[in-house]
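Re: weekly structure request thread

Next one in the queue (244 aa):
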Amino acid sequence: MSGFGAPAHLSRERLSDKIARDIEERVLSGELVVGDQLPSERDLMAHYGVGRPAVREALLWLNKTGILAISNGDRTRVSTPEPRDLLHVLSGSAKLMVARPEGMRQFQKTRIFVEAALVREAARHATAADIAALEKLLLENEASKDDIAAFAASDDAFHQRIGAIAQDSLLDALYHVVLDLLEDQRRMSLSHPEALSKAALAHRSIFEAISARDADKAEAAMREHLETVISTYWDIFEQGGDAS
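Done, posted below.
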């Protein structure tokens, strides 16, 4: 197979891991570059001297990490890893963590760190068009204070727009992963009778700080907002999940 030299020594233990590591090293070294096709599964089996299951497990793992792209009807190719793909690999273990109160508290803290960083960058990078788009989302959010479902959707859109304005793909990806893990927390917090009005006011403060290009004020407003959300969640949690 041209361009696919002799394999590194493979032990009989955890063959799929050894194959995955060998292919990964070829990509990192530049022997294989983005867009290159890998040999067929049959050729890889012959190349490594293993059965189909070991090859498939290795390719599926590398696909999961974003190094390879697998598509039906075409050869597996080397792809450009996306930050969200890389962080998604960790989500299984993270779900186990967040299922426990101490894990939930850790990810709540992580969300504050991430969104504080994102909003600071948003305040620095926001253009006039960015601010106009963010204001539109803010107005939609404020107009939906009597509808939890609509408010939650516009809340998501407002926070996600801040992440996009920040222009940091890795931080933005981490934010989305943490947000997915905290979905139950967010849903419970919004069930509190005063939650929507408090959140809308907080969003207004965050927007005004970004509009003024004041990174310190934006971070302070975001921290206060998220700490209120967290406090509301634990108040409801300690009451057995009943916000009424």
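The longest strand covers residues 68-69. The mean pLDDT is 88.
Next request, please.
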